[in-house]
Each structure stands twice: as C-alpha cells, then as structure tokens.
Amino acid sequence: MEQAKHRNNNNAPKRKREENESYAENGNNNNVDLSLLEALEKSSHSSVEVLDLRTLKKLVLSFERRLRDNIEARLKYPEQPEKFADSEIELHEEIEKLKILAGGPELYPELVNLNTIPSILGLLSHENSDIAMDVVGLLQDLTDEDVLEDNDEPARVLVDSLVENNALDLLVQNLSRLSENEQDEMTAVYNTLATIENMIEVKPSVAELVCERTKLLRWLLGKIKVREFDSIKQYASEILAILLQNSSANQKRLGQMNGVDVVLQAVALYKSRDPKSEDEEEMVENLFDCLCCLLMPVENKERFMKAEGVELMIIIMKQKKLAYGSAIRAIDFAMTKYPLACERFVDVLGLKTVFAAFMGKIPVSKKNKKESQQEELEERLISLIASLFGGILRGSRRERLLSKFVENECEKIDRLMELYVRYSDRVKAASERLNNLEFDELEMDEEERYNRKLESGLYTLQLIAVILGYLWSSEHPRITARIELLLRQLKLTTQNVKDILQEYHDNIGDLDGPEEKERAQAKIQKFIAAF
C-alpha cells in the first residue's frame, strides 16, 4: 500500500489553483436549486424533529451551503489553513447531521433526486482526509444492512446512484491515503470495506464492477500478504471471498494477478499451527473459501499445481491441525474435473492420507468435533475419492487407487457400504417427510423435491454409487466379490445401486455444455449396464 498521507485539520497542504478550481467546479456542478431550499429554510424557525421530505431538504441545503463556503475559503486562502479551518469544522458537522437520514431510507430516492450524491462523493477526494473519512462513515451508515432491510427499492435507487457517480473508484482511491496505525483511519478502512459489502448485498453486479473499475483486488491481496493477524486482514479476507464466490470473471482476474500463489502463502502459515483466536480462525476459513473459489476455473487449477498447492494441502492434512478439513475441501476443488491434479495427488503419496481419513481417522478438534462437521468432512472425502476415480482412468496410478480397496481385507469397501446404508436411510426418511407434507406438497414441483432430497444427502449417496460403479467396472475379482457379499448381507441387490445411478443420470444438467452432459451420462449408463 502507498505511504499514507497525514491527516490535516489546521495544517492542510497547499493545493494548486487549477486543482482547487476543478474541485470547486465539481462541488457546484450538482444542479441543486439553492434559492428554493433557502426560501424553505427561512420559512421554518423550529428545530429538526421529524424526518420527512421537508427535513431532508433542510439538511441538504445546510450541507450544500457549508460545502460551498469551504470551497470558497480554500480557493481564497490556499496557503492559510487557519482561514478555512472553521469552514471545515462546520462542513464536518453537516456531514454528521446527514447521518440522521439512515433513519428514513424511504427518503433515499428524494436524496438522489436532489442531486446531493455527487457533492457527497466529491468529498472523498477532499484535501483534508478527515472530511473524506466523515463521508466514508456516512456512506456506511446509509447503506447499513439493518437500515436497508425491507427497503429494497430505496436501497436500489441509492446504490445505483452511488455506482453512477463513481463511488467505487473514489472509495478505493481513498484507501491509499489511510494509515492503519491511526485508529480513526483504521475505522475508515473498515467502513470503506463495509460500504462496498453493503452495496454488493443490494446490487450483486457491484462485485464485478468494483474489480473491473478499481484496484481493490490488488489492495486486498496486499492485506492478506501480511504475516501478522489483525482485524483488517480478517475483513480483507472476508471481502475477497465475497468478491470471488459467484464471479468467474473475478476468479480469473485474481488468478492472473498471482492470487492463487498469494492465498496459498497465506494459508501455509497454518500448516503446522492453529489460529490463536476465533477471529483468526474465521480469517483462515475465509482464506480457504477464497482458495476454493479460485480453483473453479481450470487455468487456476494449473496455477495451483505449479505453486505446489497439492503438496501443501497434503502437508496440512498430515499435520492434523485446525485447517485439516479445509485442506480436504480445497484439494477436492482442485481435482474436480482436472486429471492432472489427481495424478499429482497419487504421485506425492496422498492416497495414504486421504484413505486414513476415509476410514474415520479424522482428528477431533473444537472445530470438527460436532457430528454435523464430521459428516461434512465425510462428504468431502467421498467427493474427493469420486474425483480421483474420474481423473485416473488407467495405468499404475489406477492400480494403486484400486489396491486401496483390496488391502486390509477390503476394509475400504466395507466402509463404503456402511456409508451407503447410512445415506440411503437418510434419503428414504427425507422422501417420506416430503410425501407427508400437507401444505407445501401441492406447490412443490418435482425439481424442488429433487433439490430437497439432494440437500438431505442424496448427492453424497449418488457419489457413493458412482464409486461403486467404478469399482464394479474394474472387474477386479476380490472387489466385485466383496461388493456382492456385502449387498447380500445387507439384503440389497445391484438393482438398488442401479436405481440411484439412474436417478443421477436422469438429472445431470448441462451447466458445462451439452457435450459434457452427454459424456457424463454415457459414463453413468456404462456403470448401470455393468451391474
């Protein structure tokens, strides 16, 4: 980050005359009818009590007047700070008064109509960084999630206006002059990130806009590079995760900025030690969320491989610290539909580590001791093993993978069937609940019913069936004999597995294109025919 500029109250640095004139033009070019508002103010002698349109106009009038006075004073006495100090204090007070508008978000469209937003945002470039920080605080208040709740339309109008008037650019530019060594300025950093987060909540497209138009991604990367933990690094990791979670464009953009390597370095700090606080733990989870999002585009999977991300995740798993489960999740993302990562995983002896976890040898910590978190790890491991089978189709690596299901009296197959029964029972119970619904049943279409079943464990059950399909298709005599034996013992048949595979086949989507859908369905059909 650039060297932060010192704040200035009575010791403001010089501003060139051309810059002052430009600032004055920007400040006055807002089409606010001051004469009308002045007349309104003169007609009222009572103090502000009720927040309504009349109050809004009075607040705006007073703000615009103090802004004009400050601009004029700075132009007239550019080298005499004491001459404009009072006007700056008055401007600060008027900005503080505008915060009352957060109590009446229904008035936001009128605030926009009065063309006050350009004047407010223009102050983000004010020479006195305290004034800019006042504006950041105001914007955070106006866009606060609690304030905007149940006020969708006024919120949209405000955020649209902020975007149209370059709020994103101005907010991010202002970050460069804020020092985290000053408490007020650190608060302004927090408020800046909170405002951007609030804008994304109202208008999700802001997530891509802010990355297209500003250097926010680079600023955030700079923050998570810092080795020491602090609250700004924590919030930066959270904002980065938000920006990446639903945007392929942002995932690719950050990948091109060496983002994969930076995030890997950040999580590597926790390969052999645990976070020291709940806040630091949350930051580590945010960082792994970022990593998993980054691993969606195939080009970032390549970068992950080159940066030895596969090896790092295996080391984290072996260390059995708090990041254990997160490492499993990340390696699963890396290997999904990416055979090269699967091959690397086998080559660097990852099979021993992952199958130890699959057999239930999961380290118990305060994070994963709850049953739900243990199950989440199980589901990730099942997905990871399914990815391995999908990525390693032949050769010595395939033999090594299959041999894991033969060793120790086929204990991995026993474990797989144990999970099959558990998830099958869970899905049956969920189906019965859906059938017994009295009120929602008529409104619930087949797609929604299917999605409810997926949430109840059907997806994991389908992956288990897919793994059984790979095992059965291997035609390995000990493997097929063990599966047949366990099916008989459980009073099941291959038809039960085929039914699950058929439902999976019939619901494969075309998100990755029609050719990929056809290929995936052909693979499942092959399993069904083999049983």
From TrEMBL:
InterPro entries with a match to the protein in the record: ARM-like (IPR011989), ARM-type_fold (IPR016024), CTNNBL1 (IPR039678), CTNNBL1_N (IPR013180)
Pfam families: CTNNBL (PF08216)
Gene Ontology cellular component terms for the protein in this record: spliceosomal complex
Domain (Beta-catenin-like protein 1 N-terminal): residue spans on this chain: 29-136
Alphabetical list of SMART domains matching this protein: DUF1716 (SM01156)
Record carries keyword Lyase: no
Location of this chain's protein in the cell: Nucleus
Domain of life: Eukaryota
First-listed, main subcellular location of the protein, grouped into a coarse class: nucleus
Keyword terms, alphabetized: Coiled coil, Nucleus, Phosphoprotein, Repeat
Start and end residues of each stretch annotated as Disordered: 1-30
PANTHER family: BETA-CATENIN-LIKE PROTEIN 1, BETA-CATENIN-LIKE PROTEIN 1 NUCLEAR ASSOCIATED PROTEIN
Protein name (database record): Beta-catenin-like protein
Natural source organism: Thalictrum thalictroides (Rue-anemone)
